[in-house]
What does this fold into?
Amino acid sequence: MKYLAQSLLSLIMLISSTTLFAFPKANPVPGGVALVPLGSVQQPKPQAYFQNKAVTILPYYDHWLAVVGLPLELAPSTAVLQVQTAGQWANYPVTVKAKKYRTQRLRIRDKNKVTPNAASSQRIVREIALTDRLKQTFSDFVPNLNFIRPVSGRDTGRFGMRRIMNGVPRQPHSGMDIAAVTGTPIKTPHRGRVIYTGSLFYTGNTVILDHGQGVLSLYAHLNTIHTQVGKWLEQGEILGTVGKTGRATGPHLHWSIYLNQTSVDPSLFLNR
Ligand SMILES: [Zn+2]
It folds into this structure.
């Protein structure tokens, strides 16, 4: 009986330790995620930095695991994760493999959205400064990365695609596009606090959520926004509806996920 109780207890502990923290699928390529095992959880929680940006660290069984976002512009090589544990610094190698992204050609009717005029350029500079500042958010609360899909619908633009708009090369795609009719509700993929709502030049009506420890998510081209800054949203709560505001060829949700201020492929957080 005692033996049965013990094995039941260890089974419960095993289930709780595996379901407590979910992780994205590891894919150490530019725009992907590297999962780097650090020291034992018996030791104090380390702090880790990738390109001087704070990295998310979560417990995984008996050790700490760094969840590192790898920038799209990173060249395949061995990068370095700097880790500080109880005042001691150590370098952990992160091997970045090559990945070839496809090219997508788009026709945008509003020419100012492809080659902005002087007034729009000034607006863009201000908005980049604002979003860069928001991306630096690193809250104490512990993220849960067990995300659900915010909208069901067809994937029309994969993360990382090289883009040619009206024949002009533009920034690669920093998120995942899901096509849906205007007004389709957008669900919160996991608990988070709203840190931005507003209208931006490229992303139109936009919501940004802070999921904790540098994990952020962004929702673009919304028709309507159903939340406000400072509000906590639970998984499944509606944050807004699908639209085509900003630079969009038709109604869809553009969904970005950021780790250590870097946009990474959202599909790694689904179908794990
Ligand atoms: Zn997009």
In short: The chain is about 15% helix and 40% strand. The longest strand covers residues 77-85.
